Amino acid sequence: EDFYKQKIVWGEISDRSNFALDNQDHFFVNNKCYLMSGDQLEYLFCFLNSPLCEYLFSKIGTTTGVGTSQWSKFTIEKLNIPIITEDQNKKFILFASELERDPAIKKLINQYIYEICDLTTEEIEFIESQ
Asked: What global pTM score does this model have?
């Protein structure tokens, strides 16, 4: 049943976070491809593709041995993803729906994530410089 629901999909080996939000019942068959279903998927999609997530993942994730990150399910489950309110989630639903039409929204998404995490300007600059 989860294959027919909205889901986040990603490949395990990638230099950067590379998550996709699937609303069209696609099926992905590969031992290096994962899917996630559940609640607040638009928020998770935005968070998982953010520079903050890439930074956090770099501290807990593993690599292939040549430096490429392995975005494995068990490591992603270890990420400390902030809990958000329903009002905040509504904003991420809007962001995710507009992202394909307007890639510039990615900057707004990242700023909103930093705000939710209560990051300072210095912390944001550090994360974005990594």
From this structure: 0.89
